[in-house]
Structures are given as C-alpha cells and as structure tokens.
Amino acid sequence: MKCWGGGKVKHTLAVLVENRPGVLSHVAGLFSRRGYNIESLAVGETDDSSVSRITLVVEGDAKIIEQVSKQLNKQVEVIKVNDITEEETVDRQLLLLKVNADIAVRQEIMQIVEIFRCRIVDIGRRSLIVEATGDDAKIQAIIKSLQPFGIMELVRTGRVSIVRGQK
Amino acid sequence: MQLGAEILIESLRKENVRVIFGYPGGAALKIFDALKDATEIRTILVRHEQGAAHAANGYARASGKVGVCMATSGPGATNLVTGIATAYMDSIPIVAITGQVATSMVGTDAFQEVDITGITDPIVKHNYLVQEAGDIPRIIKEAFYIAQSGRPGPVLIDIPQDVTAAMAENIDCKKVDLRGYKPNINGHIRQIKQVIELIEKAERPLICAGGGVNSARATEELLYMVENAGIPVTTTMMGRGSISQDHPLALGMLGTYGLAAANMAVQACDLFIALGMRFGDRVTGATAKFAPHAKIVHIDIDAAEIGKNMRVDVPLVGDLKVVLGQLNKRLQAKENQPWRTEIAEIKAKYRAKDRPVVGSGKDEEGVTDDAISAADVIENLNQRLTDDCIVTTDVGQHQIWAAQKIRTNLPGKFISSGGLGTMGYGIPAAVGAQVACPDCNVYVITGDGSFQMGMPELGTALEQGLPLKIILINNQTLGMVKQLQDHYCQGRYSSTEFSKSPDFHHLALAFGALSLRVAKRQELAYKMEQFVQHRGMAIMEVVVPARENVYPIVLTGSGLDEMVGT
C-alpha cells in the first residue's frame, strides 16, 4: 500500500477502453461530475490498436474508489478496470525540465544529472534541458535538487504502471 | 446502395419500432423525408421536443418496449435534454435520434449546431455521433440493445445531415458485439445463499420494491415471495404497481412523502430487502437513521447502485426476475405471524392519518365547508379505476397525493417522474401511454403549475384524437414549493402564488376537449362521472383550497419515523 499521508490512499487504476474518439472525455467527465479528483492520467494505445489503456491515479478512501471503479465499469466503452494499487508494479513518469545554467553552475548541474542517471537533451546558451524517467519519488527528488538553480519550464507526464511478472 | 436516412428507417423497422414522437427541422430533413414513406411507422408530430422525449418515456413505460423520439439539431436537440434526463433518472428505455449539422460543419458553431453528445454525456446510458452511413445498422442495433438490457436507460444517436444524405451499403447487423457491456443476469450463488439465510433468520423482514421490479416485470415473482415467505412489502414511487395496493401485506409507498405505516414498518424491521431501487434521498430521509435495527440486502442489476447511498450487508447483482426466481426456489414457506400482526396493527393505527391531506398551511379566508379536498378527488377517481387504467402525473403536491393513494395494481399503470421530478411530464407522458395502449383509459393528474408547462402537447392529443382524461387540481399556487416555504422559509411565499391564471375552461374548449369545472364537494361525484364517461379528451378543473399540504412529510435531516403531520 502506498501512502502519502493525509489518511487517504492513492489508487492506481489501469483502465482498458475502446480506442475511439470521445472515450477519454467520457471517462474524464465521469470523474468531474461525480466529484472525484484525478491526480494523474496517462493514455496510450495498447498492443491491440483497438484498445487504449488509461492509467489513472485517484486519491480517496475505499468507498470512493469502489464507486469510481463501478462507475467506470458501467461505461459501455470501458472494457476492464483493474485496481493495481496492491500489486507489485513498475511505475514511471517522464520529466522534461529546462533549468537556468550559466557557465558558473553548469558543471554542478551536470553532476546532479549524473547522480540521478538522467540525461541532458538540449544545451542552450543559458539553459539546459534535463530528461528523466522514474517513479514519483525520484522525479520529486530531481525537481527539488534542480530548484535552487531556477527552473524555467517543467513538464511531466502522468504515471504509467505495469504489474511485475511472477517471481 | 441506399440513402443513409433510408438505412436508418429500415434499421428502426427491424427493431420493431411502430411509433416515433418527433419534431422536424433542417438537419433532420432527410430523416423525416424517409419517414414519409415508412407506412408501418407512425410518426407523431409533437408540439415541443421535450414533449417528444416524455411521450417516448410514457410509451416505453406503458408498453414495456423502447420509446423513440426524434428532433433536429441545435434547439431541437437541447429541448430533448430535460426529457432524456427524466428517462435517465427513472431508468426508462428510450432512443433519442437527433439531426446534426453536416460533418464538415461540426465544430464551426454552424447554424443550429450544438454538441449534443457532449451535452447529454452525464444523462444517457450511451450515445453515438454517427460518422458513416454504413455504421447506422450496427449503431441502431446496439442502441436498442443497450437501452433495454441491464438497467434500462436512454441512448442518444446524433446523425449529421450529410450522413443521412450519403449512399451506403445497407449491411444487416445480426449480432451485438460489445465487449465492454455485459449485464449480470444471474445472481451469484454464494450471495443467494446468504440472502436465504438472512430471510430464514429474520423475524421482521420487509421487502421494498423499486422501479426495477416493474422494469424487469418481476411482479409474479415478487408476489410469490411475499406470500410464500410471509414478508410485508412497501414500494418506492417508481415501484408503484409492482404489487396490488389492496394486498394485506402491502404497505404502500415509503419515503419522505410516503405513507406513515410504510415508514414505521421500515424503522421497525430487522431485515430490509431492497429490490431494484437506489436508496434515493426521497426514500431514505436521513440515511444514518434509516432502518436502524435492520440488516440490509440490496438486489439490483446495476452493481454501481450497491453501496452508493446506503450501507449494505449482502449485495446481490442480477436481473430481478431471474434472481427472485432463484430465491423463491430455495425459500421455505414461512408465516412470520407475530410480525404480520404487528404490521396489521401499524396499518390500522395509521390508516386514518394516512389520508393524504390532513394538515393545512395557513388558514384561508372564505374557505367553506363544501370546499373540495384533493384527497376527495383521488378517492373519487379511485372508485372508477379498473386495472387496465393508466394514470400519469405531473410533479408537485398532486403527484404525492396520487402516488400515495391512486389504486394501481400492475406495472406500467402509474407513470410519474420519480427521480428528476420534472414538471410538464404528465400530459406528454399520457400522450405516449395512450398511443401505446389505445384501448386503455389514460388519466392525467396535474396541478395548475405543471399543467401550464405540459400544455403544448394538448395540441398533439387533439390532432391524434387521443381521449386523454385530465384532472387539473387547481390550488392557485405552486403548492409543493409553497409547502416547503411553510417548513423552511417561515411561510414567506416567494413566487409561489399565482395572482392570475388563464381561464382553464376556455383553454380546454380551445383544444376541443370536454371542459368541466368543479369547486363544490357535492358536485364532485356527478362531474367525475360525466368526465369519466366522456369518449373524447376531457379536462376537469377541480378547485381546491391553497391551504392543503402533503402529510406526512419527513423534513431534511430527519429519519422516516420522525414525520411531521402524523
């Protein structure tokens, strides 16, 4: 169980849906009108091009999550809902971060990048763009480390998760 | 190759559609053009699109089939919205077909363009924006399947103008293949056993029959369970008709506007068996105080209803007709005699007080002894109702008076907007019901507020020659809101009193109806007889004093046993 405090639990739902226009808005609309908050959302085609997978992170107590799952299941275009919160999963997010990098601090930044095993993907006259993948904790740590240099722009994807194979 | 519009009509015909309630317009030209030649489909031109959706709703409820309504794009489509929401809240199977601007114009804010699939998303079971004429057979087949299977509900199909005008191969769709939609039909055997065990152990079991019993047409199974296992039964407003009101074990409607006996039974029971209901707030009152001594069994076809509003001890998902059959097969005959005696006592104790109109808001000057009470009207009509009569209502005090007391013994005979509480529903719903059941007597019980919202469809009834019998209970106010102002606003009546109303007598005449007006109790029976006997449309205005309120009532935050007015 992954707890971030506050008493409520973050749940990761893997939702398989028909890969058709409008489906994402159905799913997202359902959350807003029933008053559930989506923490993060990532969507992409699966190996079957007629099916998309939406990975949703929702915060709530057991009752709310049960309702969320049931309401999702009711949608005609939703094929399957899996709550993978309790499973052993590999979780990843992608972060792209443009940071102030004058000559004086450039070396220091590159060391941090090295430590976190992320990459520099663009070098400007006064800035660097850092690319990182990792779970929530790692991404947070990178952002925190680079904050003192001045973050010019930051973009990150929602979390994608996959259940680990049997050991 | 065939025109998209023709493919549409043929697909509807394959779904055995006999009647469409519709209103034409620019984006729907081709569809209505194709309907002109479809002799086996009766197209009924309504007077307002909202009426089309309500009529389809009334048709569906009276016939047990899917109701179909049709409108053009833009305002035609948005006018359907209230009707679609009404059907959604009450789980009524309707298919709404709307014209849309041409595909190339979608998204340009074209004339009469609205995103009706976007607008209706929260109030439909499913909707479609058709992209290709060749998709029409599949979409129609799916739409009708979705609308009437599982928990029924409305489905909307939006068809752009160019799609109706395009040529395509009309390839018959034989089978519905929806991998994301598989309603549960059979109850899970482990849960069935748990329910049986609870029923066998219970000393004071109570069934609550909701609209699901009616829509699953599971009334025989219900009656068998009630009699075999000796379980008293109350109903929700949507569940009216699932059991005869005259049955010794029937308690009538429960809820915040329910009958006192039914509410007291809920608070006294030790097992509450909910059948096809959703524990709406008008049923439960304060949920924390609901059935405090009872374990709760919730049986419904929609898994999402279970645990949504109410704690549940044993959930059971499935089709009620099937699940009740499964339960009946295993249930031993039982008497529950002490509890039945207690129920009889509760009924006797509250019978007098269950006369719907006992209280009064403020005293009025000039109210004489021969003033008619709304209760008199219902009782008088009851004496003339046979089992095949259909009663629709609008929304307000008259609706509650009717829901509490109208004699109704079969599904599809009491038709009222339960969940959404839509004023203006009664007359168009009656139009639909009368079209579905041309040989039944269809009564509308309405008030002076609701009547003026549903009035346009009198034109439809006139044109179609529908012999509707409309009882207009006129208390010169928006009585239900006024009553709420009595309770919650210290009797300050804001916007609830009509200082002037149309001359309903001449209005009725203008629509070609027999027009009757009665204001004195002595005249009621005689006028009622004249009204009931009339062969064509008739409108009877009954003038009642504005002071009458609906009692008992459970106010916000109270439990069902904390009624006002008992």
Keywords:
heterodimer, A: 167 residues, alpha+beta, Alpha-Beta Plaits, 2 domains, 5-stranded antiparallel sheet, 4-stranded antiparallel sheet, 9 strands, disordered N terminus, B: 566 residues, alpha/beta, Rossmann fold, 3 domains, 6-stranded parallel sheet
Write a brief structural summary.
The complex is a heterodimer of chains A (167) and B (566). Chain A is an alpha+beta fold.
Kindly describe this structure.
The complex is a heterodimer of chains A (167) and B (566). Chain A is α+β, with helices and mostly antiparallel strands. Chain A has two domains: 9-83, Alpha-Beta Plaits; 90-163, ACT-like. Chain A, domain 2 (Alpha-Beta Plaits, 2-Layer Sandwich), CATH 3.30.70.1150. Chain A is 29% helix and 41% strand. Chain A contains four helices and nine strands. Chain A has helices at 23-33, 62-74, 103-115, 136-146; strands at residues 9-18, 38-45, 51-60, 78-83, 89-100, 119-123, 127-134, 151-156, 160-163. In chain A, the strands form two sheets. In chain A, strands 5, 6, 7, 8 and 9 form a five-stranded antiparallel sheet that branches. In chain A, strands 2-3-1-4 form a four-stranded antiparallel sheet, with helices on one face. The longest helix of chain A is centred in the middle third of the chain and has 13 residues, at 62-74. The two termini of chain A are 19 Å apart. The model of chain A is unreliable at 1-6 (pLDDT under 50). By secondary structure, chain B is of the alpha/beta class. Chain B folds into three domains: 2-168, Thiamin diphosphate (ThDP)-binding fold, Pyr/PP domains (Rossmann fold, 3-Layer(aba) Sandwich); 189-351, TPP-binding domain (Rossmann fold), CATH 3.40.50; 374-543, 3-Layer(aba) Sandwich (Rossmann fold), CATH 3.40.50.970. Chain B contains 22 helices and 20 strands. In chain B, the strands form four sheets. Chain B has a six-stranded parallel sheet with strand order 3-2-4-5-7-6, with helices on both faces. In chain B, strands 11-10-9-12-13-14 form a six-stranded parallel sheet, with helices on both faces. Chain B has a six-stranded parallel sheet with strand order 16-15-17-18-20-19, with helices on both faces. In chain B, helix 1 (4-14) crosses helix 2. The longest helix of chain B has 15 residues, at 49-63. Residues 356-363 of chain B have low confidence and may be disordered.
